[in-house]
Specification:
This protein has 222 residues and is of the alpha+beta class. Helix content is 25%, strand content 41%. The chain contains 3 helices and 7 strands; from the N terminus they run αααβββββββ. Strands 1, 2, 3, 4, 5, 6 and 7 form a 7-stranded antiparallel sheet that branches. It starts with a helix and ends in an 8-residue tail after the last strand.
Length: 222
């Protein structure tokens, strides 16, 4: 045996004992079973959806106006003090709650036992474009005089604009004066209207009648 073979055989003999433990350890690790794969988490049965929006109204119902919004709008539109507007609005809110719409407009009326009233304005609802409406109607009673006035009408349980186009019977009289503003009620089915009037003229007494709200102006009040 030559010198080269003796050197190679010696190196193999020396390295064999040091490699044996490493091979044994590698075999032990490879023989251990792998942990089972984790399943994905189940879907959330009660996900968190976005809120209903600024008005917070349930689906199919119109948003409502706060008392502060109505007092500010009544004061600005009718040209009265915030105290006078607040006195009338506070009474309406206490009895009817928050309105779903309001109509800001102008009207003229006159009466000598038999009376007539004509008006026009814009109806406002949350998240909707203002819509022009007209109203006219007869009245009868112990009522004399005439007046031209601005009128701010609160609408309750009015969830779609088209529900305004019908006849609303009502009773009007001086007993409804609140804070210098005239207030009366009109009702048809579940919809209630509460006009607040401020204007010039002289009209005394009480009357019974109705107002018909329409999409177009009508000369015939019936």
């Amino acid at each position: 045996m030559d010198r080269r073979k003796l050197i190679v055989s010696g190196l193999v003999t020396l390295s064999a004992p040091s490699l044996a433990p490493r091979l044994a350890k590698a075999q032990t690790v490879s023989s251990q079973p792998l942990p089972p794969a984790q399943a994905p988490p189940p879907p959330n049965s009660t996900p968190s959806y976005p809120s209903a929006g600024p008005s917070g109204a349930p689906a199919g119902e119109a948003g409502t106006y706060s008392q502060d919004e109505i007092v500010r709008n009544v004061s600005d539109f009718l040209g009265v003090t915030a105290e006078a507007a607040g006195a009338a609005v506070e009474r309406l809110f206490a009895k009817n709650g928050r309105p779903t719409a309001y109509i800001a407009g102008e009207e003229g009326s006159g009466s000598f036992v038999l009376g007539l009233r004509y008006g026009r304005g814009l109806m406002y609802m949350k998240d909707r474009t203002p819509m022009e409406v007209f109203w006219q109607g007869p009245s009868v009673g112990w009522d004399w005089g005439g007046n031209a006035s601005r009128v701010f009408t609160l609408c309750y349980n009015l969830h779609v604009p088209e529900a305004i186009f019908q006849r609303f019977p009502g009773v009007e009289g001086t007993a409804y004066l609140v804070g210098g503003l005239g207030v009366n009620y009109q009702r048809a089915e579940d919809v209630t209207l509460a006009p607040i009037r401020a204007g010039v003229g002289l009209r005394l007494g009480a009357n019974v009648g109705y107002l018909a709200y329409t999409r177009k102006r009508s000369v015939i009040p019936f």
